[in-house]
Each structure stands twice: as structure tokens, then as C-alpha cells.
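Sequence in, structure out. Go.
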Amino acid sequence: MQYQNTLEFVIQMDSNDPLKNFRDKFYIPIINKKQCIYFVGNSLGLQPKTTQDYIYNELENWANYGVEAHFHAKTSWVDYHDIFIEPLSKIVGCLPHEIVVMNHLTVNLHLLLTTFYRPTKERYKIICEAKAFPSDQYALESQVKLHELEPDDTIIEVAPREGEYNIRTEDILDTIDKHKNELTLVLFDGINYYTGKVFDMKTITEAAHNAGAYCGFDLAHAAGNIELHMHDWDVDFACWCSYKYLNSGPGNIAGAYIHERFVSDASMPRMAGWWGYDKESRFKMTKNFKPIPTAEGWQLSNSPIISMAAHKASLDIFEEAEMGNLLKKSKLLTGYLLFILDKINASAAKKTMEVITPINEDDRGCQVSILMLQNGKEVFNALKKHGVLSDWREPDVIRVAPVPLYNSFEDVYQFGQILKHLI
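Output:
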């Protein structure tokens, strides 16, 4: 693609975009009496215009049927979570019976760690990325302490090399090999939240398995953003939220994936609840847990229908747009953003910023992280005053994410014009 830094170019690109009408399916926040440039879908996705109707439908079911809506609503509440299996299996890249929608991200991570972190005297170590998202760090630390182990002796962090921002795959593999005799779990983010780097999940999983360890991923920044193949990559487990690229509302329902080799194994250790109990005999209310032989066997409680209605509104849009189309546009949009940033740097009297997100399109998703070399916080604050919503990460990074469902090439161009002016 031969990008051009002109308004004519972006108008033509947007005119030819097969996904151009999807922007109209979302509410765009207003700043200075006009639609803002919304580049924080990596933090909170925009609200689909249908969300209110989807939620209202379930409120109507509640009003009209009461408890009977569990069985007599158009989509019965007792099976409501089943409607997410097909669309999410396409987004995450797995088999339908390997997915369950439940809880929140860190709750699901703890539930999965209960199953997959089973330290012994010989094998007890965990390998993860240095400076992973704090919630993951806290989850690992607390799980280790629950097993009466010391985090500093148990959790091995892989960091970027001196002077670099992204962790090299070969350093992850070397660390796995170094600790292979004591290793029981490898857990990484699918995408590093700070730099936007996509980890080589297939290669990391293979190395973990060769070392005799389980391998899992936090897909918070990956689900709905990049191409995923959890099943084919042989990943043991994963979890994600739905409020970033999946546009399902702040703090909304999350999901989990568990490879099929585990889901029908009733002996797998887990925290149990009645909604994970065998469906045919669930309402007999008997003792002795009998798990559903799918990922649903990890459920604890019945579905939060109102939250799930918002999730369905967004996933229906994903089904209409199709993930392949979104991925194609995403690479073009982010590629254009990198082109614009490079032009700004080239025209400046001195370098004022550095992109720390990998340039290779297979190593990144929507997000571009910009290391500000001077006046970063001032530039970030000024962007908002000029109608650009971006994201600040201490100490000096502005994160921007052009999302293919609702961002345009003109968004990227106008952002570049504003940023150049501010710098």
C-alpha cells in the first residue's frame, strides 16, 4: 500500500472501505460540539447503538415473565450463555465446546489457575512477562502465596533487553529451557498492554509443553483485535474481557477458553458451582459435583442476563462484519498511523517521539504506543482539548488504537495534523 499524507487520499480510502457503514452503528463521544477522534478502544470500546434495545428486551422479559423468563423468554435465560459460543469461537479460534462466557477477567484467571497451577516440590515455577498488566501480577502473586510459596522464588519474569522495549521470543524460549526442570506454568498476555507487541503464542506454547508445563494467555488486548487460533496452537487455557475491542460495556462479562483435552475430564481440579453442574440433573439439587463435559464445567453461577445482553449487541456486529474483514482493515489503518507518525518525526527539527510498538504487522494489533521524548503529558492533555481521546501510560507513553469497526482513515489523518501542530 502506497500511503499518502493528504486529505484526498483518506477520503478515497474511506469511500472504498467495505466496512465504512459500521461506524454508524456506534455512538461517538462529542468534544467541542463535534464527534471526537476516539482512539481508546483498547481501553473501552464504544457503545453499539443497539445495546439499549438488547438490554431493554431483557428488561421486558423480566417484567412480562418474571422467573419464567428462564424458560419462556425468546432466548431462554437458562441457556443464554450458549448464544456466545459460535461467534466467540471464531474470534478466539477454538472449538465451540472449549468456550464459556462468565464472570470477569481476573476472576476467570483465578479459576483457571486453580486448575492449571498445581505446584509440587519439584515443579512449582511460573514464567511470565516482566511488567505484565498489574491484575495478572497480583493474581499470580496471590496464587503462589495460597500454595505457601514465595513469589520472588517462584515467579520468573522475562524482561526486554537493555535499551529495548519489547521482549524477544528467543529470550522467552531460553528462560523456559533454563527452568524446564522446575517449571509448571507459562502465562503471558497475548499482547503486551504497554507496547502493543503481539507474543508468538504458538511458539511459546510449544516450548512450554516441551518443558512439561502448562501454557495459558490473558487475551484482554487480543480478543477482537488480532487473529487467534487457541485450539490449533494447542494452548491449554486463556481468558479475556469484553469491554475493550469487544465493545460490551465497562467491566462487563468476560470469557474463558479451555482446550478440549481437559473439558471432559471430571478429575481436573477446579472451583465448582451449580451452573457448572451437569445440565440434565442440575435442578435435582444433589451433592457431589458432576461437571458439564465442556468448558461450561468451570461456571459457578447462573448468567447475568442484563450484562450478557450488552455483550450480544456487540457480537452480532462482529458476526455481520466478519473477523477477516476487520483484520484486513486493521492492518491498513495501523499501517497508515505508523506512516503518519514517521512523517511527523521526519519533519521535526529534532526527534520528539519514538514508536515502541513493533513495525511488523504480524507483531502488532490496533494499538500503537508512542514514547514521548519531551512534554509527553502536556501533549496528551492538549490532544483531548483538540478532540482526540487517547490513553496515557506512565511514565511517558501515549497509546492510540484505531479500531476498524468505527475508526476511519480520516481519523488517523486528522490525528496526525493535530499532533504535528502540538509538537
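Check: The longest strand covers residues 183-189. The chain is about 35% helix and 15% strand.
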